[in-house]
Specification:
Layout lengths: L2 E3 L2 E2 L6 H7 L1 H11 L4 E2 L5 E3 L4 E5 L8 E4 L6 E7 L5 E6 L4 H13 L10 E7 L7 H14 L5 E7 L3 E11 H8 L4 E8 L4 E11 L3 E3 L2 E3 L5 E4 L5 E5 L7 H9 L5 E2 L1 E2 L4 E4 L10 H5 L3 H10 L31 E4 L10 E4 L10
Parallel strand pairs: 1-10, 3-17, 4-6, 5-18, 9-10
Antiparallel strand pairs: 1-2, 5-8, 6-16, 7-8, 7-9, 11-13, 12-13, 14-15, 16-17, 19-20, 20-21, 21-22
Helix pairs in contact: 1-2, 3-4
Length: 360
């Protein structure tokens, strides 16, 4: 079935700019989304979704009210919900296996929605920026194409991704300045009218990107994180101080090359962490001995994190120095999310041993 916007079919596009030019309502909604300030999310009844994870639940959940994720640069944050049942899924996609991940996201919502419930599937897609390798652009197109191949009708409500807005302006510049600007990547000169030997009027076309802002000469995302209220369906820019439970253990699974997994059992209201394997790394002792700033500096010069834009990732991304091997429990662990008013931040139960991640 097709991917829709305002009940109109979205045809397959070759670029995100084409998507926005043929669907101006998506451009307007994206502009409104990036204009909103991030909301600081309370840790109570929050379920944080890390990279290469997804989680789904319904409004009947007594433990989770907000699904959220952040630290997305070239990664994309995907929210899919059913307006009838209220079933909602949030995924943090990095492009590792988009075509197998999208069906998992769709199934997570449809399996929690009764066929008798009227309503439709609504999609919110946020992430990416104008990175040098155009990784964001490629991932945006892949995710859109994968949703277009699903058998269900899916309505695209928010599409805050990388894409170009073209505007025109006329500016009077000196001859010297015009030569300098002709080499700029931020706009192209379309027509130059020579008024005198020393003065020119430029008609220029400026490229502005949807989820992109330039700071200190570097392109960066405007929105790094989002949250969705599973009770109301409200999707909003968000920031988080808590990224647990078991933040380091879950990060280790992704770092070891694990595929996207569902981390929440909504029927039992439990966070689950499957076992993972990784081969010994002779360089690990070096990384564990470094402070966060040193790790960031090294990553800016090398290719260690090939899936991120090295210069724009927030400093909170670095958790390697806090991941001591003694804290990585290999057991299959299940965590209870924090309920409203609960005095315990989390509880952990191991299926294979009595070991658990201690509360923070």
């Amino acid at each position: 079935m097709p991917l829709l916007t305002q009940n109109q079919r979205i045809e397959r596009v070759n670029s995100t700019s084409e998507l926005f030019s043929t669907n101006p309502q998506l451009k307007e909604s994206a502009k409104q989304f990036v204009s909103r300030s991030p909301e600081a999310v309370d840790t109570k009844q929050l379920l944080y979704v890390q990279q290469r994870e997804f989680a789904a639940t319904t409004p009947a959940d007594n433990s989770v009210s907000i699904l959220g994720s952040d630290d997305a640069t070239t990664c994309h944050l995907v929210v899919l919900s059913h307006t009838g049942s209220g079933a909602t899924c949030l995924a943090h996609c990095d492009g590792s296996s988009t075509w197998t991940e999208v069906p998992l996201i769709v199934n997570a919502v449809t399996s929690r929605s009764s066929p008798a419930k009227e309503g439709r599937l609504e999609l919110h897609l946020v992430g990416g920026f104008d990175d040098d390798k155009r990784t964001s652009h490629s991932l945006s197109l892949s995710i859109l194409a994968a949703f277009q191949k699903q058998k269900e009708e899916i309505h695209l409500e928010t599409c805050c991704i990388t894409g170009v807005i073209l505007t025109r302006s006329i500016q009077q510049l000196s001859y010297h300045t015009s030569k300098k600007h002709e080499k700029s990547s931020h706009y192209r000169l379309l027509t130059i009218f020579q008024v005198s030997n020393h003065m020119r009027f430029h008609v220029r076309k400026i490229q502005k990107y949807m989820n992109d802002i330039i700071k200190d000469g570097i392109h960066r995302p405007v929105v790094y994180g989002i949250g969705v209220n599973v009770k109301t369906g409200h999707v909003f820019p968000a920031s988080f101080t808590c990224r647990g439970p078991a933040e380091e253990l879950r990060s280790a699974r992704t770092f070891s090359g694990g595929q996207m997994v569902e981390v929440y059992d909504s029927s039992r209201e439990l966070v689950k962490i499957d076992p993972c394997r990784w081969t010994p790394n002779n360089d690990m002792s070096f990384w564990l001995s470094q402070d966060d700033e040193t790790i960031l500096q090294i990553c800016r010069m090398k290719w260690l994190f090939s899936l991120i834009s090295r210069l724009v990732y927030p400093s909170v991304f670095v958790h390697v120095s806090t991941c001591r091997t003694s804290s990585l429990c290999p057991s299959h662990q299940i965590h209870h999310p924090v309920s409203a008013g609960s005095s315990d931040r989390r509880r952990a139960v191991s299926r294979r041993s009595a070991a658990s991640v201690p509360p923070r």
